[in-house]
């Protein structure tokens, strides 16, 4: 019996694979390597291909006797989703439905879906819980919400035991070789600016927050991985037919907090450049994490300093040290 991790050669997926193999769980990875890297998955079994390839998916499920799926494969760039929505609906929605169809046909019992806090949109609340109204403002967020609906409805109709995991702001690396190669989130964007000898940018410093910058809930990718292992075991044990869980720390950090932590960790002195706000950035998005703690006994272990330090180690291993300013 094996666990299938779709997108397992990517940033988050590889951490989930590492956590599962570290827990002595048999794993097979399905990844098209459009953004993933083969070396990340270590000794786990690997199948090169897309979740849209129905024959390949069914063959993989049967040949590896897959009984549980962790579905992470997806396109996830918010900006790109707005300019190429068809790609996101095809990959994220059609792909998820095709995977669910194959899972039911092949007798898969458990399903963990990688969702996102983007499903909430711009919540006007101090803490976001799983019952906060859902109003995604991006195509990416909408595809994740539709994916949740598909998982929920298939679970209700078939008895598939399933859970949707809404990630907040993922950061850090469990080891340098598993670091995030993309430059789409705040911490790697700051590293890229420092490496190029530029000042990191703050998009808006006039928000109604203590220091005027946006506040987010940052969670270490190693904590995300551990939560997936706990969730897969939870649904495999038959504890729930369907559930939605936030994955965060339950604490907020502002953009200026992050930049101060980067300066402390790297030893690079810099003065950020404040520019105009970006459209669609809410002032504060912080998770309430009571439900995942109560259901899985899980809570985040790592703080912002751990995230930045581990991300910095991964960045310098890949790119080298930046010039001193």
Question: Could you explain how this protein is built, in words?
Answer:
The structure is a single chain. With 325 residues, this protein is α/β, with parallel strands linked by helices. It folds into two domains: 2-170 and 219-247, Rossmann fold (3-Layer(aba) Sandwich); 171-216 and 250-319, UDP-galactose 4-epimerase, domain 1. Helices cover 40% and strands 18% of the residues. The chain contains ten helices and 14 strands. It has helices at residues 11-22, 54-63, 78-83, 85-105, 139-158, 186-195, 221-236, 255-266, 290-296, 304-319; strands spanning 2-6, 27-31, 45-48, 66-71, 110-116, 161-167, 169-171, 201-203, 215-216, 218-220, 242-247, 253-254, 273-275, 284-285. The strands form four sheets. It has a seven-stranded parallel β-sheet, sandwiched between helices. It has a three-stranded mixed β-sheet with strand order 12-9-14. Strands 7-10 form a two-stranded parallel sheet. The N and C termini lie far apart (54 Å). The mean pLDDT is 94.
Q: Care to give the gist of this entry?
A:
This protein is 40% helix and 18% strand. The protein is of the alpha/beta class and 325 residues long. It folds into two domains: 2-170 and 219-247, Rossmann fold; 171-216 and 250-319, UDP-galactose 4-epimerase, domain 1 (Alpha-Beta Complex), CATH 3.90.25.
CATH homology superfamily of the largest domain: NAD(P)-binding Rossmann-like Domain
Q: Count the strands? A: 14
Return the average pLDDT rounded to an integer.
Answer: 94
Q: Could you say which overall geometry the principal axes of the C-alpha atoms support?
A: globular
The radius of gyration is: 19 Å
- As a percent range, the share of strand residues is 15-25%
């Amino acid at each position: 019996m094996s666990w299938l991790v779709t997108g397992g050669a990517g940033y988050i997926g590889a951490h989930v694979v590492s956590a599962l193999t570290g827990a002595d769980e048999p794993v097979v990875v399905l990844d098209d390597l459009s953004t993933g890297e083969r070396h990340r998955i270590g000794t786990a079994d690997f199948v090169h291909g897309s979740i849209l390839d129905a024959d390949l998916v069914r063959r993989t499920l049967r040949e590896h006797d897959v009984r549980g799926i962790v579905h992470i494969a997806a396109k996830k760039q918010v900006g790109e989703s707005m300019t190429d929505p068809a790609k996101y609906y095809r990959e994220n929605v059609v792909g998820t439905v095709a995977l669910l169809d194959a899972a039911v046909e092949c007798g898969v019992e458990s399903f963990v879906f990688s969702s996102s806090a983007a499903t909430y949109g711009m919540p006007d609340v101090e803490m976001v819980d799983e019952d906060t109204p859902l109003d995604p403002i991006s195509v990416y967020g909408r595809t994740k919400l539709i994916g949740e609906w598909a998982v929920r409805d298939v679970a209700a109709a078939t008895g598939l035991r399933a859970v949707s995991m809404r990630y907040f702001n993922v950061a850090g690396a469990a080891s340098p070789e598993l670091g995030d190669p993309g430059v789409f989130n705040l911490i790697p964007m700051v590293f890229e600016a420092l490496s190029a000898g530029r000042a990191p940018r703050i998009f808006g410093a006039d928000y109604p927050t203590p220091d005027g910058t946006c506040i987010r809930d940052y969670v270490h990718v190693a904590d995300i991985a551990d939560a997936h292992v706990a969730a897969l075991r939870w649904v495999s044990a038959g504890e729930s037919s369907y559930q939605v869980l936030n994955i965060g720390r339950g604490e907020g950090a502002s953009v200026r907090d992050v930049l101060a932590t980067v300066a402390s960790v790297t030893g690079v002195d810099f003065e950020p450049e404040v520019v105009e706000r970006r459209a669609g950035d809410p002032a504060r998005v912080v998770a309430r994490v009571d439900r995942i703690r109560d259901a899985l006994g899980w809570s985040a272990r790592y703080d912002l300093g751990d995230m930045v330090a581990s991300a910095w180690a991964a960045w310098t291993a890949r790119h080298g040290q930046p010039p001193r300013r």
